[in-house]
Design brief:
Blueprint: H1 4-10, H2 17-36, E1 57-58, H3 59-69, H4 74-96, H5 125-128, E2 134-136, E3 139-141, E4 157-158, H6 159-174, H7 176-179, E5 182-183, H8 185-190, H9 193-199
Parallel strand pairs: 2-4
Antiparallel strand pairs: 1-5, 2-3
């Protein structure tokens, strides 16, 4: 299988250098945690619990996902865009009301019928860290399918510094206003105008 992340790197996409380094750091941390907690971490091919979690992504992550998406075969892209329409409608309904984003479920448009991610190498930080205990803004989270026991103390990934780095990369690339925005994945795919000029460079 072609590693499209490598394609970006070697095609001189310097805009993604810091992001790829951050992803490498996160992946290496996750690898160490899998070695340390093999019974507790339930992540595996075909497990898609995280793919229905509701979250948005930073500008730089959105840009990278869109660049990856555009390299997929056209039939795959059309199918993903069809799913994105449904996902974006659900997102807008949820965010327009008083819904709880932390417990809501919306199927990611990048999730295929085989329960695998169509953009797995380009997945954002939230996807990469989902299977282990995390904390941000004082709120802890762990996948409900994992074997981590409530009341026990485990190594916890602090998401705030990672998100701050993503914000810094985004603002450096797109300016404070546009770079400070966050986007649901479905919106990135369906309405790519904010990213078009940068990807065209």
């Amino acid at each position: 299988m072609v590693d499209r992340c490598a394609i970006f790197r070697f095609n001189g996409r310097a805009m993604f250098t810091n992001l790829l380094q951050l992803y490498t750091f996160v992946d290496q941390t996750m690898d160490r945690l899998r070695e340390r907690f093999p019974a507790e971490i339930a992540c595996g091919r075909g497990c898609a619990d995280c793919c229905a979690a509701v979250f948005d992504v930073s500008f730089i992550e959105a840009l990278f996902l869109l660049a990856y998406f555009r390299q997929l075969p056209k039939p795959d892209r059309l199918e993903i865009l069809d799913h994105a329409e449904t996902a974006l409608a659900a997102w807008r309904k949820l965010t327009a009301g008083a819904g709880d984003l932390s417990t809501a479920r919306i199927r990611c448009p990048l999730l295929t019928a085989a329960n695998v991610c169509a953009a797995y190498p380009a997945r954002p930080v939230n996807c990469r860290t989902y299977g282990v205990p995390t904390v941000i803004n004082g709120a802890a989270h762990v996948c409900g399918l994992s074997g981590f026991d409530k009341g026990q103390t485990y190594f916890t990934i602090q998401l705030a510094p990672l998100q701050q780095s993503l914000l810094d990369y985004s603002c450096k690339l797109a300016g404070a206003v546009e770079g400070g925005r966050r986007f649901p994945i479905a919106e990135v795919l369906l309405h790519p105008a904010p990213f078009a000029a940068i990807l065209a460079k």
